[in-house]
Amino acid sequence: MLEVRDLKVSFHTEQGPARAIDGVSFDVAEGEILGVVGESGSGKTVSLLAVMGLITDPNVVIEGSIKYQGRELVGLPAKEMRKLRGREIAMIFQDPMTALTPVYTIGWQIAEQIRAHNSISAKQAEQRAIDLLAEVNIANPHEAIHRYPHQLSGGMRQRAVIAMALSCNPSLLVADEPTTALDVTVQAQILDLVRKLQKNHKSAVVFITHDMGVIAEIADRVMVMYAGRIVERGNKVALFSNPLHPYTKALLDSIPLLEGERPRRLKSIPGSPPALLNRPKGCAFAPRCANRFEACASVPVLPNAGHDAACFKVNP
Amino acid sequence: MLLAITRRLGQMLFVLVGISILVFLIFFATPGADPSARIAGRNASPEILEAVRKSFGFDQPFYMQYLIMMKKIFVTGDLTSFVNRGWKVVPAVFEAIPVTLSLVIGAAVLWVVFGIIIGTVAAATRGSWLDKFLMVLGLVGISMPVYWLGEVMNLVTQSRYHDTWMFSWVPPLGYKNISTDPRGWFLTLIIPWFTLAILYIGLYGRVLRANLIEALQEDYVRTARAKGLSETRILLRHALRTSLTSFVTLFGLDFGALVGGAALLTEVVFDLHGVGMLTYNALLTLDLPVIMATVLYASFFVVLSNALVDVVYIFLDPRVRTA
Ligand SMILES: Nc1ncnc2c1ncn2[C@@H]1O[C@H](COP(=O)(O)OP(=O)(O)OP(=O)(O)O)[C@@H](O)[C@H]1O
Ligand SMILES: [Mg+2]
User: Fold this and answer.
1) Residue A256 carries which DSSP code?
2) Cα A100 → chain centroid
3) What pLDDT sits at residue B288?
4) Do A113 and B227 touch (CB under 8 A)?
5) Which residue has the higher pLDDT, B81 or A123?
6) A171 within domain boundaries
7) Of B217, B223, B231, which to mutate for an interface test with A (greatest number of A Cβ within 10 Å)?
8) Helices B275-285 and B89-124 sit at what angle, rounded to 10 degrees?
9) Which domains does chain B show, CATH number per domain?
């Protein structure tokens, strides 16, 4: 349904061009949940913002191809893109505290999206907003539509944001760390909710997170990003049971175990990710990698197979 | 909501009483100076001094003096000037109020309308030549001193080009009463309105543009974009709507100050006998009763317009309602 090929996103900065995304290719199939994981700054948000056409920075250059249901999105006129956004592809963001306009009720904001894409009456849109709030388990939806964002808790706001994203029955939902800003119990509820809604609405979901635990909970397939590239991709079960890339292994080692003996300290990955303007020429992970060898001085490719990694140890 | 409004108006009354006491103390309780001598004006005869002392109760305790003063201003309204013997102060202030209000309200309408248009257009086209042009224009407006601009306007419309088709409609300087001569009132004020408004148009346009551009970086604007709304709708319904609160704050401060007498320069240049001019003349002659009355009047308007701003806030920002 979504085919991204060799996507490159660069920003012109004062210190020169900064390639935040460097040749990323992936597919999203109808109805699946694709987990995208990686450290902060690895380019998860930027790559999906590029898909949404939401990078507003005037200094951006986007190359490659993004096809949504066969339609090329790179270079699509803003007006056409707008018709897709919110109706076909919806996105929810990390911080529910700031994601809603403070001066309008949540009912108004949901109805606004519905009416931007469908010609229905205000009354019908309001009814639909009530139904949606009920669907995301907000108590008293009749009353809740008249609430302002500041009158709701973080979890409630994120539910309202999810209700809004689903209001036009999108076939693709991009969720950018929707649970990171919430406390753990609320996180679990939101994850359950996303799963339930994904089943009911039959949407595909791209779920961005930096938490392998969340990926384990929710994803069908996983894509691991490091320094603007995909380093490993595969089915969740395969990837968790048999991680190929040393970075993925390190990420998995850093999840606290729920059962069994807990390690004294969580293992963390030595070193830190390279700065955007100062990325290594070859494999970006090489400086932190215990297994590096001569080949790592050039860029490893990610084969387009089921479960594979961009690593010379795996694909010599 | 109603509670919030009444509470705010109650606070306002409290502030006003406080200000009147403070102003009174500054002018009448300064140690070492005899207030009757100051009220009576320069070179007053002993008889006048005695009359002043009696009439203002300066032989009584401070609180009585204050009450007498308030009574003279608010109840009997018979506060008289001794510099201009027998001149009734309160009616003089009330005669000046409509002049100042006409000037400032008209200018305020202009600067709000044009300020919003310029700020919004500049923010919508940020980075373009139109944006740069509007901002330079705004800067020019801000840097032109109002008395200079007023004099130039007068020179152009009253003498140099008065006899051409362009400015022959401009009536001579001075204020026309709105109820007896509405047409004359409007025509005489057009030039003063623009002269006073230009500074604020530039200022408000620039401030609004900055606020809008900041608002456009907010997360909720990204959400609005993700919803598939048009850029115009995002700008007007989301960014502008949330920027209005700081716009209104600024407006309340400026409007209050101008009505309170800060429009003095415009009043002088266009020979409009408003409150600013009244205060100015009173300061020149050290006419204490007039100063007392106009300062009270000015603080009343500053406080009133700020209270109105807070009330408008309650409508604009739902977060204030519950607080
Ligand atoms: N407008 C921009 N101009 C310059 N660089 C940018 C811009 N937007 C993003 N970047 C850079 O692109 C890189 C990728 O950022 P991105 O937000 O996609 O990371 P992320 O994986 O989503 O991280 P996080 O987990 O912190 O959300 C970062 O190094 C960031 O500094
Ligand atoms: Mg991110």
Assistant:
1) P
2) 19
3) 83
4) yes
5) A123
6) no
7) B223
8) 130
9) 91-286 (1.10.3720.10)
